[in-house]
Amino acid sequence: MTPTPAEKVSAATPVESMQETELVVEHLLAVMDAMLDVVAEETKLVRAGKLSAAAQLVPPKHELSQMYIADTQRLKASQPYLARTAPTVLAGLRKRHDLFNAVLQMNLTVLATAHAVSEGIIRGVSDELARKSAPAVYGASGRAVAPQARHAQPLALSRVL
Asked: Which of 44, 73, 99, 112 could form a disulfide with 11 if both were Cys (CB 3.0 to 4.6 A apart)?
């Protein structure tokens, strides 16, 4: 995305005309659409287990989020003006923002699930390695004792596959 005249001004500077409002709203909607495309692609890749491909989407996602924040701050600073001059635009933005948040929430759920699953796998591997490297001993009751933490060895993970 190339910076629009709306972006060249400070993010907290309120809009002063309907033309300026239209530029900022148009840019915000374009940023939201682009961000939804990136998030949908990321969600698809994470669900498919293609984490390295999903990680390549971080820079464009970051850039889009910066533009989104700048536009929303500008519109927040303009809220009294917009409430007076363009209440329908404000209502439409709120609806669109609710939809945007719903899609982002789904993406965050997918990412959290992938994180929990991968953490569970790593912990399982680590526990199994610790169990195998510890001597099998029996306690006073005659039952096997769980391996102690001092027998655990560090686990190295290569991110290059």
From this structure: 73
